[in-house]
Write a structure and sequence with these properties.
Length: about 675
Amino acid sequence: MRAGTPLLEVSTGSAGQVIDAQRINLLPLSDGNPFVLSRLAAGTAYIGDLKFSRPFDNAGTSSLVADGAPGTNGGNEFTLDGSPNMAHGRRVAYVPPSDAVEEFKVETATYDAQQGHTAGATVNVVLKSGTNDWHGTAYEFYRSDSISANDFFLNRAGKPRAPLSYNRYGGSLGGPVLLPGYSGRDRTFFMVTYEGLKDEFPEPGTFTVPTEAERKGDFSALLRQGITIYDPLTAVRLPDGRIQRTPFPGNMIPTNRLSPVALAYLNLYPLPNQAGDAQGRDNFIGPNGRGDTFNSVTTRIDHKLSDSHRFFVRYTWNNRRENRGNWTGELDGVRPTGNYLFRVNNAFTYDHVYTRSATTLVNLRVGFARFNEPNVRQHQGSFDPKSLGFSSRTAAFFGDASYVPRFEFPTNPDTYSNLGDSVGDKRATNVYSVQPTLTRLMGNHSLRVGYDFRMLRDNSYPSHHPAGRYDFNTDFTPGPLDNSPGQFGQQLAAFLLGQPTGGFIDRTASRANQSLYHAGFVQDDWRVSRRLTLNVGLRYEYEGPITERYDRNIRGFDTTRPTRPTPSRRSPPPTSRSKGDSPSSTRTTVASGTPTRTTSSPGWASRSRPTTRRSCGAAGGSTRCRWSWRTRSRPPPPATTASLPSSSRASPSPRTSSPPWTAASPSAPT
């Protein structure tokens, strides 16, 4: 006698693939991820990156297309022991260790009314349970960087080998629950699985950093490349309306014109470690290391209350921390670039089965899953932006912000690499589910009736710039005319002069969106004969609208007015002007439903007049208020002494303006 899998499944019309524990143990798995075997199912196509199949690569694991369902991640439905296992973006939330999986099934063509909530495939994973016998496993996969070669680009640049390591380890243990005075044999069982993964590898790149001479305002080396730095304080208007400037003598900015804020910020840049091109670009190469630390735990307890009642409780947790993007390294205890991406899962399922008779069975399943995905900058909590030397009136807007603010150099023309960032965003998805099902056998009929309730809560706090973002472009330092094309080095010169061309400060609010899902189904599997089975089912689904739990999706809506609200009044747009010219006044544009605030005061640069804007809006429950400004140069009045961009100097000319968060400030922010 030899048992085997039947060639034809005659009890159901659904198509799919069952992957059992034996196949999971015998077939090769990329990074121990059992979901990679779902790509073997007929009717599926993998559209992800094969490099990212690790258990914490949620998007790469989910990038499976079935039945032509749209979406980058296939629009599939993932369940764990029958409970929803979904993260935002239609991704799988929790990927269990392979040793914890009993089997999983990929249904690509579902003719079962119990399955739904997707236009693609349904992937259900069943975890192992303990038995009366003790079972355990232990494993480790290790790759040492001592046997790895240096990266090609680092080796060509003569740089040392960057760390390149991989270590995945774990184990499982299952059996009866044995406690003092209690034996769980034939009654209570447990199963625990753990897996850890640590990897590190370089993503080398070339970057452009200021040279020692440029940090002192010396751009004389660029003269040989035909690049000239012009003084924005020498701007005069020609009869034809154009703005003309004169260059700095020798392409050198006087030291008394250098902004203290810029000089302090330059200390966060590493020094060049290679020659670069003729203009000095690509003068720094770094390993730009990337790595992960991952831990995962799966626990399950099964208990038999009686011959009619049994249940199991399952809890899963994992935590992934990725470090990436820190190309500068650590300078004075600060990592001015780089991000930590966290992915944390917490999920719970309670499943109770009541066998009322030989023909009637009731199953109640209650689940909760939380997928948390925050981004934390590597410099958050380790740097005080007020220490850069901003004026006290400006720094007061920063609050308790602790991170390296963004000083932006636009990439056209090619310019210096940026440092700093925003404060990272936070997003968490909670899924609550209740799924009762009644199964009744009646002759040749197997009848199932059930209800599927889910509550999805999506909580988010967007990234923002509480200490501001400051843009430095080539508006004020090219020449001889204001319409002359910008060149490399002129953005850094504007930065050293403390002459921003734009920027903003963010004030954001969180959102707490919620959606309710209801579904009811009736399924009858009728075995007409030994050769024919009819699967007849009806499923009704209702996906409720997205609401904000605290009614913050609607802003500025007056529920007490019976008439139609009048359209909001907006300031007219600024008059079209040539680059470098100045509007005749400062305008503030305010969105509907927000208070108007218009301010003007002396600014960072002495010969500029910005267009300021404050606007607030709501999208998806997230409210964002932004103060932004755009500066335009204007010719100086006759016999006016230029004031320097330092908080310690006297006030500049009263004809100048500043970013609006320095309202009524007698000194210019630096």
